[in-house]
Amino acid sequence: xxxxxxxxxxxPTGDPHVGTAYIALFNYALAKKKGGTFTLRIEDTDxxxxxxxxxxxxxxxxxxxxxxxxxxxxxxxxxxxxxQSERFDIYKKYAQELIDNGTAYYCFCTEERLNNLRERQIAxxxxxxxxRQCRSLSKEEVAAKLAAxxxxxxxxxxxxxxxxxxxxxLRGDILFDSDKIDDQVLLKxxxxxxxxxxxxxxxxxxGISHVIRAEEWIASTPKHIQLYRSFGWxxxxxxxxxxxxxxxxxKISKRKNHTSLLWYIENGYxxxxxxxxxxxxGYSYGDNKEIFTLEEMAQNFxxxxxxxxxxxxxxxxxxxxxxxxxxxxxxxxxxxxLALPFFVEARFYSEKLNSIExxxxxxxxxxxxxxxxxxxxxxxxxxxxxxxxxxxxKVEVGMDAKEIKSIEKMYETxxxxxxxxxxxxxxxxxxxxxxxxxxxxIKELLHEVMEEVAEKPGRVIMPVRIxxxxxxxxxxxxxxxxxxxxxxxxSRIQSSLQKN
Length: 500
Ligand code: GLU
Fold this sequence. Notes:
This protein is mainly alpha-helical. The protein is 49% helix and 8% strand. It has helices at residues 18-34, 52-65, 88-100, 111-123, 139-147, 195-205, 221-231, 261-266, 271-279, 294-300, 315-329, 332-345, 349-355, 358-368, 375-381, 383-386, 401-414, 417-431, 439-453, 461-469, 477-484, 486-499, and strands spanning 5-8, 37-40, 104-107, 153-156, 163-168, 172-177, 185-187, 210-214, 237-241.
């Protein structure tokens, strides 16, 4: 087989989409598996929708994922330029070639005629489409119109009959009736190419062997195949990946999911976890293995491991995977490097962080990572180690009856004289300990208090926790006190006691 060359061809029209990374991932995996190359091409022919910032975000986010390309606008390569806006002359030349070989034609129909035609078709309940009027213009008529500088587009001649077969690597043969497919505009009246022309010309000139793209492009593929035939070029292998879906199985959308890769970066998802999650969308590694690296996926890649069942983009699953990567795939010191910016961002940490020596920071991470879903959450979950001043939970607007009840219950417990005695007793016991007494020793002290005041854990441990952290849940009390030291612990408890 000739060399495998694949590409991702995003349009820079908005936030960098998770779907782009998804498609890039599968292209990348095939290229690596086959020792081929991976190209990034920017499809910016639609000047009205193109946003300057978007291209850089595509570069940055795909690089963040580790999906590096061998050829592209920023790295160059033998088939450049890799930005379609820099290739307009090429498309004009190829459109002309199709005119010359009789597989495309000039269409001089005005906007007005096309609108009337569409309205008539809709009124007659017919599928809207071009009626091919200009396809039968004689050479002389065309020459006269061109001489008169009438505005025109160039359209592709679709066959009047027969079928076009899309041979899809995942879906088998998909048949389209040629006469139901519009004579696609290839070159617009302003001389700009349409997506179809630019995409096919570039895939050919860039030597693309496999077009792996999203399912939504299937309807365009018969037009692309007709273009390959009109040029006399060999078509690539087609592979239309399943669409990513919301939980309700509709096409993934901003309203129901975070679709911008920037959101995942800003919230501290690890790139390895993100890729692993995307890889699981319709792809099975084998042996029920769910956690694997990009390299492992690439080595093990084949089309028959992809299923078409409409993979659901389930953030809970991503959270689960991200937690595994934070806990098991990173050393604490690697995690610390990744997490530090999130700690600094959560303002109240910055000052304290400098005073905490590295060992403590690592200990805190080891505790908080157990339940954290991302680095931002890791920083939030670690707040109990840093926040010396805090408010106790209060009943707030919007809370449900259960939450209100549990807060009321908490205050009732805290106002109980015996509970208060327990807290004071704990403070006086702690006072006699070393500054960073062990987690186990603190547990012992809490048990002693429980026995001495004859109360259950819920009436000793929970109140101490609230006084110490302002929260009813969190890491083991012993570990918090061990890490922050008894001086800070006692001062926190005392100031909470004063406030209540
Ligand atoms: N520019 C198209 C996109 O934005 C490329 C589709 C294709 O891969 O052919 O997805």
